[in-house]
Amino acid sequence: NVGRLLGICNYDTSSASSDKLMVVEYMENGDLNQYLRERHPVSADSVRISQISPDSLLPDQLLHIAEQIAAGVKYLHSEGFVHRDLATRNCLVGPALQVKISDFGMSRYLYSKQYYRIEGKAVLPIRWMAPESLFYGKFTQETDVWSFGVTLWEILTFARQSPYENLSDQQVISKACEAVQNPNSLFPLLSKPSYCQPEVYAVICKCWDMNPENR
């Protein structure tokens, strides 16, 4: 459940120092964020009547997507890698609802509003990051688990909501810093999505434990 890198070549074949181009496997249904948005069970042009289309995703299918992402993260961690930017925008969808983790930097251009530029330099997905990542710049397997919790929340909202959409970027950063510096100051949890079972939401919240060892 990790996207395959098929090859690398020089953009300018006459120069060894040319920018590199990567060839990756083709996933016909694009990124998961857009895929989910297009398969929300409620019609966008109907407020009162829920119109279920044949393409709408069912709860079991949403969990199947989440399980595949979890399997991909588990594999990366078993190989000693930390993803650092897990989100629906960085997952690709193939045939038969096959989902694979990806991220070759493309999403930073396609989803620029979901990233925050620190002091005009570093571009970070702050709304998907664990508090210790924001405060200390620390990225571990445990911070990936935090991001997986946000990604699972995204899946169950059909990517129709932004995490902490009631907070500005600066407020998200401030809340994270407060939570790290003061144990009595809790980081706000994202509310339970409408299509989320209580037991699944409990798993999501477990991913957001302030103690990384408990995630």
TrEMBL record:
<keyword id="KW-0418">Kinase</keyword>
<dbReference type="GO" id="GO:0038062">
    <property type="term" value="F:protein tyrosine kinase collagen receptor activity"/>
</dbReference>
<dbReference type="GO" id="GO:0043235">
    <property type="term" value="C:receptor complex"/>
</dbReference>
<dbReference type="GO" id="GO:0050793">
    <property type="term" value="P:regulation of developmental process"/>
</dbReference>
<keyword id="KW-0472">Membrane</keyword>
<dbReference type="GO" id="GO:0005518">
    <property type="term" value="F:collagen binding"/>
</dbReference>
<dbReference type="InterPro" id="IPR011009">
    <property type="entry name" value="Kinase-like_dom_sf"/>
</dbReference>
<dbReference type="GO" id="GO:0005886">
    <property type="term" value="C:plasma membrane"/>
</dbReference>
<dbReference type="GO" id="GO:0005524">
    <property type="term" value="F:ATP binding"/>
</dbReference>
<dbReference type="Pfam" id="PF07714">
    <property type="entry name" value="PK_Tyr_Ser-Thr"/>
</dbReference>
<keyword id="KW-0547">Nucleotide-binding</keyword>
<protein>
    <submittedName>
        <fullName>Discoidin domain receptor tyrosine kinase</fullName>
    </submittedName>
</protein>
<dbReference type="InterPro" id="IPR008266">
    <property type="entry name" value="Tyr_kinase_AS"/>
</dbReference>
<keyword id="KW-0067">ATP-binding</keyword>
<dbReference type="InterPro" id="IPR020635">
    <property type="entry name" value="Tyr_kinase_cat_dom"/>
</dbReference>
<dbReference type="GO" id="GO:0030182">
    <property type="term" value="P:neuron differentiation"/>
</dbReference>
<dbReference type="InterPro" id="IPR001245">
    <property type="entry name" value="Ser-Thr/Tyr_kinase_cat_dom"/>
</dbReference>
<dbReference type="InterPro" id="IPR000719">
    <property type="entry name" value="Prot_kinase_dom"/>
</dbReference>
<dbReference type="GO" id="GO:0051897">
    <property type="term" value="P:positive regulation of phosphatidylinositol 3-kinase/protein kinase B signal transduction"/>
</dbReference>
<keyword id="KW-0675">Receptor</keyword>
<dbReference type="GO" id="GO:0048468">
    <property type="term" value="P:cell development"/>
</dbReference>
<dbReference type="InterPro" id="IPR050122">
    <property type="entry name" value="RTK"/>
</dbReference>
<dbReference type="GO" id="GO:0010976">
    <property type="term" value="P:positive regulation of neuron projection development"/>
</dbReference>
<dbReference type="GO" id="GO:0012505">
    <property type="term" value="C:endomembrane system"/>
</dbReference>
<keyword id="KW-0808">Transferase</keyword>
<keyword id="KW-0829">Tyrosine-protein kinase</keyword>
<feature type="domain" description="Protein kinase">
    <location>
        <begin position="1"/>
        <end position="215"/>
    </location>
</feature>
